Amino acid sequence: MKKNIFITGFSGSGKTSVGKAAARRLGWLFVDTDDLVVEQAGKSIDEVFAEGGEPLFRKLERVCIARAASGERRVVSTGGGLPMDARNRLAMEQNGIIVCLEARPETIHARLEKQGAQRGSVVRPMLESEDPPNRIRSLKAERQAAYALSHWTIHTDGMTPDEAAAEVVRAWRTLAGADDPVRPVPDEAPGDSTDLAAVVRTTGGEYPVWVGWDIIGKLGERAAEVVDPAAAFVIGDSGAKEHARRAQSSLENAGIDARLYLVEPGERNKTIGSAAAVYEWLAKERAERKHLIVAVGGGMVGDLAGFVAATYLRGMPFAQVPTTLLAMLDASIGGKAAVDLPHGKNLVGTFHQPRFVLSDVSALRSLPDRETTAGWAEGIKKGLILDRTLLGLFERQRSAICALEPEQTTDAIRRSVSIKASVVAQDEKETLGIRALLNYGHTIGHALEAATGYSALLHGEAVSVGMMGAGRLANRLGMLSDSDLERQRSLIEGYGLPLSYPGMDTHAVAEAMKSDKKTRDGSIHWVLLDGIGNAVTRTNVPSDLVRETLARLAQ
After folding, report:
1. How many Cβ atoms sit within 10 Å of the Cβ of residue 134?
2. pTM, full prediction
3. Residue 8: helix, strand or coil by DSSP?
4. Angle between helices 369-386 and 388-396 (to 10 degrees)
5. Residue 136 neighbours by CB distance under 10 Å
6. Cβ of 53: how many Cβ atoms within 10 Å?
7. DSSP letter string over 286-335?
8. Bridge partners, 235 (sequence order)
C-alpha cells in the first residue's frame, strides 16, 4: 500500500501551503523536510549552507527524507532539489506516491519575492543571483527530468492552495487503489477550509475538526450544515458560561432552538450522579434522538456530555466545542466518553464520536494562566511520542506560544490535532495498540490524580509529572539517552510545567496504578520512549525501578 504522499516541485510552487491543506483534508500529518533538516542540524538552512554548502544540505536531506518515509499517513513537502538524488526518489516511491507541483518561472519568481518580503530574508540560498528569473529557469531545466518521474503533476498557476490540495487528494484517490482502507475527505468539506485542522475517520463515518481564532460565532452555521437539528442542548460548565451562552446564541441565530444546562467545573463532578441529573433535564426538555447535544467547556464537560449523548435515548448526535487547551488538544477528539468512580478515573464509559469539533483558540485568553500552562503538556506529549518536528516547533516558538500569539498558537494546536486525528483513524477503539501510545505519562499521572482526590493537580500537571517518571524509567532501561531525557525535562520546565510532586504518597499512587484501565492481567502496560519521537509499550518494567522512580518524583 502507498502509505504517504510526497509533494515535490521547485521552490515557490506551493509545496508547503498545498501540503498543509491536503493533510487537513485527509486527516494526516504534515511534514516538511526543510523543518526536519533544521531540527537535524540544529541550525537554520542559511547556516547549513554557510557551514557546508550544498553538499552538507543534500546529505542532511537524504537522512530526513528516509525518516519521513518511514512513517504512514503523512503528506511530506520536499525540497526542490531532493528528487535529483535517485536514493531519495527510491525512498519516496517505495513508501508513497509522488506529486509534482508545477508553475511557470514568472509565477515562481513572483511567489518567492512575496515570501521574501514577508519573511525579510532570502527564501532559498541557492536562488541568490543578480538575475533570479534566469536562475530559476536554469535550475528548473536541470531538475525537470527528475520532476517528470513523479506519479502525478499539478500545474498550480492561477490555483489557490485549497484548489491544488483538492487535486492532490484526487491524485491519491486515483493512484492509491480501491483496496486502500484510507478514504480521503470529500473535495468540499463542510465549513471554511482555512479553519479545518483535520478530518477524523472512524468506522461510523468521518467528522471535521475546526481550529481557528474567534470562530465560536460560526457554531450555528456549522451545526446546521453538518447535523441540521431542530433543537440543540448545550451542556457547559459554569466556568465557561460566557462561551456557552455565545454558543447558544450562535445556534439560535442559525434557526436552531437551543437550551443551556450548566454543571460545576472540576473532575469531582464527572460522575454517574451528574450524568443522571443531565438525563432528568433532557427528559423534562423533551429531547429527541435527532436533536443535538453540544459540549462547551473543558474535558470534564466533554466526557460527561459525550457519555450522556451515547446513552440517552440509546444515542444522540453530539458536538464538541472545547474551551480549554487540554480539551482542544486531546479530550475533544477521538470519541472517548466516560465518568469516574471512586476507585479510578474513566472506569465507566464508551466510544461515541462527535459529529464535529469546533475549537475557538481565542477562548484560551479567558482561562487562568495555570490552566493554559497545564494544557501544553498534551501538545508536548504528542511531539515526544510521535513527531520530532512538532517538538521542534514547541521549542522554537515557546515565547510566542506561551504568550498565546494567535498565529503561532493556532498553528501549534492545529498540528497537534492532526496527530491525534491520525492516531484515532488508525486505532479508533484502542484495539491495535497504536492509540495506547497517547497514554504517555498517564499511568503515573492518572494514579497521582486519583491518589490526591482529583483536586491537588490539574490533569496536564499530573501528566507532566508522569512523563518525567516515564522518561526516567526509559532512561534507566537504556531506551532513552541522557541528552534526550534532558531535552524532555528542559521543554517541560520551559513551559512552566511541574517535574515532580513533592510529598507524594508513593504507596497510594502505586495502588492506584493497579486499578488503571491500562492494567491487564495484573501487568501495567507502560508507554515509554525508545528515543524522541518513538514511543513503545512495555510490560516488563521491574517493580523496584517503579518504586525508585516514584520516590524521586516525590522529592
Report:
1. 12
2. 0.70
3. strand
4. 140
5. 23
6. 12
7. T--TTSEEEEEESHHHHHHHHHHHHHGGG---EEEEE-SHHIIIIITSS-
8. 261, 295
User: Contact 12/115 with Cβ under 8 angstroms?
Assistant: yes
Close Cβ partners of 517 (under 8 Å, ≥ 6 residues apart): 344, 346, 347
- Residue whose C-alpha is closest to residue 247's, from 219, 213, 284: 219
**Does the pLDDT at position 413 exceed 70?**
yes
The grid coordinates listed for 182 are 484510507
- Measured CA to CA, the distance from residue 504 to residue 466 in angstroms comes to 12
Q: Which CATH architecture has domain 426-553?
A: Up-down Bundle (1.20)
The predicted pLDDT at position 190 comes to 55
At 435 the pLDDT is 77
Query: Confidence class of residue 376 from pLDDT cuts 50, 70 and 90?
Result: very high
Kindly tell me the burial class for residue 426, based on how many C-beta atoms sit within 10 Å of its own C-beta (0-12, 13-18, 19 or more). Answer: middle
- Kindly list the strands in the beta sheet with 152-155, ordered across the sheet, starting from the edge strand earlier in the chain: 29-32, 74-77, 4-9, 96-102, 152-155
By the 8 A CB rule, do 447 and 510 touch? yes
What sign does the CA torsion over 398, 402, 408, 409 have? positive
Question: What does the alpha-carbon distance between residue 239 and residue 213 come to, in Å, rounded to a whole number?
Answer: 20
123 pLDDT tier (thresholds 50, 70, 90):
very low
- Write out pLDDT tens, residues 151-183: 999 988 888 888 899 889 888 888 875 334 334
Q: Same CATH fold, 193-367 and 4-176?
A: yes
DSSP 352: -
* Beta bridge pairs of residue 206: 201
Q: Which CATH number, 3.90.78.10, 3.40.50.1970, 3.40.50.1370, 3.30.70.1140, labels domain 193-367? A: 3.40.50.1970
191/449: higher pLDDT: 449
Calculate what percentage of the chain has a pLDDT beyond 70. Answer: 91
pLDDT score of 395 more than 90: yes
| Spans of all domains in the chain | 4-176, 193-367, 426-553
Confidence of residue 282 (pLDDT cuts 50, 70, 90): very high
Cα–Cα dist 451/453, whole Å: 6
Burial zone of 264 (CB within 10 Å; 0-12 exposed, 13-18 middle, 19+ buried): exposed
CA distance 345 to 341: 6
Q: Which residue has the cell 504522499?
A: 5
Whether domain 4-176 has CATH 3.40.50.300:
yes
Helix residue ranges per DSSP H, 153-289? 161-176, 219-226, 241-253, 272-284
